[in-house]
């Protein structure tokens, strides 16, 4: 039985990104695995460990039995502790061990994708014991792997794939989070509109309208007389939304118009990944 059409775009995006990651890390020498990435607290090795670990969980493998050190400054929440277990348990693995495990995991996941027969709405176990649908799980993996591919590209000086299949999955996920960022987190004025004009490899123009009850909705229609407009490139949008940079470090890449207090509040609440 072939993969359900709803799941196919996420499988394609995951495959594209995981193959890019494998190609990037295969020739790395031992020292290069320790390079810092834009992902707070994680090296190249840590990101590859995270990718391997979560794909192993998708395969149903048991999580490692491991005690985290107490001095991991970047681990502050229960979600971060959960994610760190797969990472810290591999921190002393050698480069050949890392590439071998990655290759083996990719082979197993590709087999799983070929044999996937579950309905997209089937409930499965997600991180921290939460219940998610198969579709949510596939979508989250496509999102996660593309973002971490970009982390590795930044760390290794190998830019690219900003418009790959995973990029479009990431765009859609981040846009879904935008109404909450604007209406709730930034407390935009009621009965207002805020426009986001994003250019580059992935382009879009979106409006967040805040109604009289303070609820935000995402619209494709441009707004006349918006309370604020933010214009920025796609790479900066992603890095901000995924917490890889702070607004202060990319001010030269963002153009804002309208209420300065509002645009500042939006940018200060822009990061939506845990």
UniProtKB/TrEMBL annotation:
Pfam families, alphabetized:
MDMPI_C, MDMPI_N
Domain MDMPI C-terminal as annotated: residue spans: 171-263
One of the record's GO molecular function terms: metal ion binding
Positions of the Mycothiol-dependent maleylpyruvate isomerase metal-binding domain = 15-153
> InterPro entries this protein is in?
DinB/YfiT-like, Maleyloyr_isom, MDMPI_C-term_domain, MDMPI_metal-binding, SCP2_sterol-bd_dom_sf
Q: Which domain of life is it from?
A: Bacteria
Residues spanning the membrane: none
Name it. Answer: Mycothiol-dependent maleylpyruvate isomerase metal-binding domain-containing protein
Question: What organism is listed for this UniProt entry?
Answer: Streptomyces roseochromogenus subsp. oscitans DS 12.976
């Amino acid at each position: 039985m072939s993969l359900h059409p709803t799941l196919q775009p996420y499988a394609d995006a995951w495959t594209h990104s995981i193959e890019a990651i494998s190609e990037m890390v295969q020739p790395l020498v031992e020292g290069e695995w320790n390079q810092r990435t834009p992902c707070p607290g994680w090296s190249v090795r840590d990101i590859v460990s995270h990718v391997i670990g979560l794909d192993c969980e998708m395969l149903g493998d048991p999580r490692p039995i491991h005690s985290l050190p107490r001095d991991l400054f970047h681990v502050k929440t229960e979600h971060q502790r959960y994610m760190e277990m797969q990472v810290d348990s591999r921190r002393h693995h050698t480069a050949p061990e890392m590439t071998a495990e990655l290759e083996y995991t990719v082979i197993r996941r590709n087999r799983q994708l070929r044999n996937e027969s579950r309905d997209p709405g089937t409930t499965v176990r997600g991180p921290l014991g939460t219940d998610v649908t198969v579709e949510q799980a596939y979508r989250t993996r496509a999102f996660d792997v593309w973002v971490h591919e970009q982390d590795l590209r930044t760390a290794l000086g190998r830019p690219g794939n900003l418009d790959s299949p995973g990029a479009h999955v990431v765009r859609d996920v981040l846009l879904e989070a935008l109404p909450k960022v604007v209406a709730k987190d930034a407390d935009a004025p009621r009965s207002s509109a805020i426009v986001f004009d994003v250019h580059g490899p992935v382009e879009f123009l979106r409006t967040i309208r805040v109604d009289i009850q303070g609820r935000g909705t995402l619209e494709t229609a441009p707004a006349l007389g918006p309370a604020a407009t933010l214009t920025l490139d796609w790479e900066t949008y992603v890095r901000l939304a995924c917490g890889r940079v702070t607004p202060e470090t990319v001010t030269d890449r963002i153009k804002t118009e309208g209420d300065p207090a509002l645009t500042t509040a939006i940018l200060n609440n822009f990061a939506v990944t845990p």
